[in-house]
Write a structure and sequence with these properties.
about 160 residues, alpha/beta, elongated
């Protein structure tokens, strides 16, 4: 396909992002983990093939990161991304505590569990989505603009 006329032929993108949702990780190596790994392999293959800009700058995962919101599930999610991401790629996780991410412990407790996760040592920013609206039996999660930043890991 031809590029739009208002974009110069020598245009080089300065930002590349992958968006995903509903990874539903339960245990390390499960279907959700395998899909995350494959998604990142494909994203890096596409970016590596681009001679002009070969980075993936960010990955945004919006909601239902895990299937049950337990520490074990979040740890599997974290371990999978920690091994799948290159150093230049930032992970932004949007936790849907009104859905699967909060199904075991409830909203605030699930946020506390997620904050304990080793993921925050490398990827410190998360947003917590705490309200859910139903429209024709479809769930829409609304971000309450709650933001947490991890402390530096203690040695």
């Amino acid at each position: 396909a031809d590029a739009p006329k208002d974009i110069p032929d020598d245009f080089v993108p300065v930002f590349r992002m992958v968006a995903a949702s509903d990874t539903h990780v339960i245990t390390l190596g499960d279907t959700g983990c395998r899909r995350i790994t494959k998604m990142m392999q494909q994203a890096y293959a596409l970016s590596d093939a681009d001679a002009d800009y070969n980075k993936v700058d960010a990955v945004v995962v919006s909601g239902d990161l895990t299937d049950d919101g337990t520490l074990t599930s979040y740890a599997a999610y974290a371990a999978t991304f920690n091994s799948a991401l290159r150093d230049e790629t930032q992970l932004i996780s949007l936790v849907a505590v009104s859905s699967h991410d909060g199904s075991t412990y409830g909203k605030q407790a699930s946020l506390d569990v997620f904050k304990q996760c080793a993921l925050l040592k490398r990827f410190p920013v998360i947003h917590a989505s705490c309200r859910e609206y139903k429209i024709q039996d479809f769930s829409f999660v609304v971000d309450y603009q709650m933001q947490f930043e991890s402390e530096e890991p203690s040695h």
